[in-house]
């Protein structure tokens, strides 16, 4: 009988040596979590960082709101230029509502209804949407549905406007009273189509008396005031009301 070559093979098995049992168990010496001292150190660092950060939060928030306002004003300028390119004239809104409807393609951002009569329909007969205006842009949070239709800045004052149309725009001297804009002022343009809009009030920041554009827009800023008076008349603060305005011109 011929034996299979596999019968001559010797099998080996490896067994752990006794020396392996003498090795230190690393896991036994590993601790979990933090000690009380380490936790106190981490908490102290967090408290210090929060103390450094909190004073800057209002500043950052104000900067964000100003940047948002500047973006809206740029959008208004673009809408005005596009409108002029389409119709060859400037719009003639009689009030803030007409301005919203004209630039938003005659659609009321709150109700979704489309205006078919009135000054806005006359200004924008093709119902072209020159600017996307949403419900939140025309609503004062504290007033809700009772908010008069206007395009409001982040401090709930309507954006001021004037066009080179020989008519008049408007602005508010402010401040907010009972959560509503106050001290509405007329902003007339005396001569149509001369590529000039008058500066609504004289201030120390510029010697300009006219704005060499076919339009002008501005926001009263965080103090909700504009004009030459003080930003906070009840205090010793001598900051002028116009100093925090955000404008379409310089």
Descriptive notes:
The protein is α+β, with helices and mostly antiparallel strands. It has one domain. It has helices spanning 36-53, 57-87, 96-103, 119-123; strands at 160-163, 168-172, 184-188, 197-198, 210-211, 215-219, 246-247. The strands form three sheets. Strands 1-6-7 form a three-stranded antiparallel sheet, with helices on one face. The longest helix has 31 residues, at 57-87.
Cα Rg: 34 Å
Which shape, going by the Cα principal axes?
Answer: globular
Determine the number of helices (DSSP H or I, runs of at least 4 residues): 4
SS strand fraction: 5-15%
Low-confidence stretches: 7-14
| Strands, count | 7
CA distance, first residue to last residue: 112 Å
Query: Which strands sit side by side, in order, in the main sheet?
Result: 1-6-7
Class derived from helix and strand content: alpha+beta
| Sequence of secondary-structure elements | HHHHEEEEEEE
Helical proportion, percent range: 10-25%
- What number is the mean pLDDT? 87
Q: Main beta sheet: strand number and arrangement? A: 3 strands, antiparallel
Q: What's the number of domains?
A: 1
């Amino acid at each position: 009988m011929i034996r299979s070559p596999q019968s001559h093979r010797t099998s080996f098995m490896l067994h752990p040596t006794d020396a392996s049992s003498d090795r230190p168990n690393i896991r036994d010496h590993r601790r979990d979590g933090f000690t009380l001292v380490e936790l106190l150190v981490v908490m102290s660092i967090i408290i210090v960082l929060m103390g450094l950060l909190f004073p800057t939060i209002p500043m950052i928030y104000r900067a964000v709101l100003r940047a948002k306002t500047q973006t809206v004003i740029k959008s208004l300028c673009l809408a005005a230029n596009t409108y002029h390119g389409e119709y060859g004239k400037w719009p003639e809104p009689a009030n803030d509502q007409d301005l919203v409807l004209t630039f938003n393609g005659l659609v009321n951002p709150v109700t979704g209804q489309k205006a078919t009569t009135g000054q806005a329909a006359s200004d924008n007969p093709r119902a072209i949407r020159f600017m996307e205006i949403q419900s939140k842009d025309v609503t004062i949070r504290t007033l809700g549905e009772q908010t008069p239709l206007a395009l409001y800045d982040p401090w709930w004052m309507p954006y001021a406007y004037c066009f080179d149309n020989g008519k008049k725009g408007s602005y508010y001297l402010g401040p907010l009273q009972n959560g509503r804009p106050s001290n509405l002022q007329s902003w007339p343009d005396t001569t149509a189509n001369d590529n000039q809009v008058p500066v609504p009030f004289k201030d120390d920041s510029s010697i300009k008396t006219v704005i060499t554009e076919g339009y002008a827009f501005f926001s009263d800023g965080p103090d909700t005031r504009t004009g030459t008076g003080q930003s906070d008349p009840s205090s010793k603060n001598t900051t002028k009301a116009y100093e925090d305005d955000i404008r379409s011109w310089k």
